Amino acid sequence: MLRRVLVLWLPVALAVTALAPFLYAVPQQVLRSSANDPQTAPATDAVSALDAGRDPRSVVGSDRVDLTRSLSPWVAVFDSSRHLVATSGEGVDAYATSVFDSVAPGERHEVTWQPSANVRQATVVMRWNQGWIVSGRSLALVEERENQVLLLATVAWLAALAASLLGAVVVSAIANASDNHALRQH
């Protein structure tokens, strides 16, 4: 009976295991890519305001955002020499301005930035006519959700393995009963 169970179950278990990573990868990618959405609007608005002649300090606002503690979005304005002109984010002066090389006018570039240990930011970079805008926010909540997705995907994978094993045992038991009944008939 064990041989029959394994013959029935192993192909299903292999297929379930091969598909299991997609249970995590697809929602994780949706979560991570949508983490940039809240920063896109402030970055786009800042580009429009700066291109229209507004002062960089008025674009970033007066509220300060501590990148190590806050979940709030922040905005930074860099000039054409890559110098930080104004920011609402504390610690943004360390932003990797080499990213600016890949940002064409009218486009946005999305970058995960880690300014210090345990601080990860989802950032959107856009060009304005005299420099660049960087808008960002913490990835802490998104990463918590990614961990929940991983846990759920693991539970679903184990449940699928258990259900398929149970199915193989039931089918094998029915087949054994049928074989035994046929032997008694002869």
Summarize the helices and strands and which ones pair or pack:
Blueprint lengths: L1 H33 L2 H15 L4 H5 L4 E2 L7 E6 L4 E4 L1 E2 L17 E9 L2 E10 L2 E8 L1 H46 L1
Parallel strand pairs: 1-4
Antiparallel strand pairs: 2-3, 2-7, 5-6, 6-7
Helix pairs in contact: 1-4
Strand order of the largest sheet: 3-2-7-6-5
Shape: rod-shaped
Terminus-to-terminus distance? 21 Å
Tally of individual helices: 4
Q: On the 0-100 scale, what is the average pLDDT?
A: 90
Class per helix and strand makeup: alpha+beta
Give the low-pLDDT segments.
none
Output the helix-strand order: HHHEEEEEEEH
Biggest β-sheet: count, sense, barrel? 5 strands, antiparallel
Q: Quick one: how many beta strands? A: 7
Oligomer: single chain
Walk me through what this model shows.
- Helix 1 runs antiparallel to helix 4.
- The protein is rod-shaped and about 95 Å long.
- The relative contact order is 0.18.
- The strands form 2 sheets. Strands 3-2-7-6-5 form a 5-stranded antiparallel β-sheet.
- Helices cover 53% and strands 22% of the residues.
- It is of the alpha+beta class and 186 residues long.
- It is built from 4 helices and 7 strands.
Short summary:
With about 190 residues, the protein is an alpha+beta fold.
Features:
single chain, 186 residues, alpha+beta, 5-stranded antiparallel beta sheet, two-stranded parallel ribbon, 4 helices, 22% strand, rod-shaped
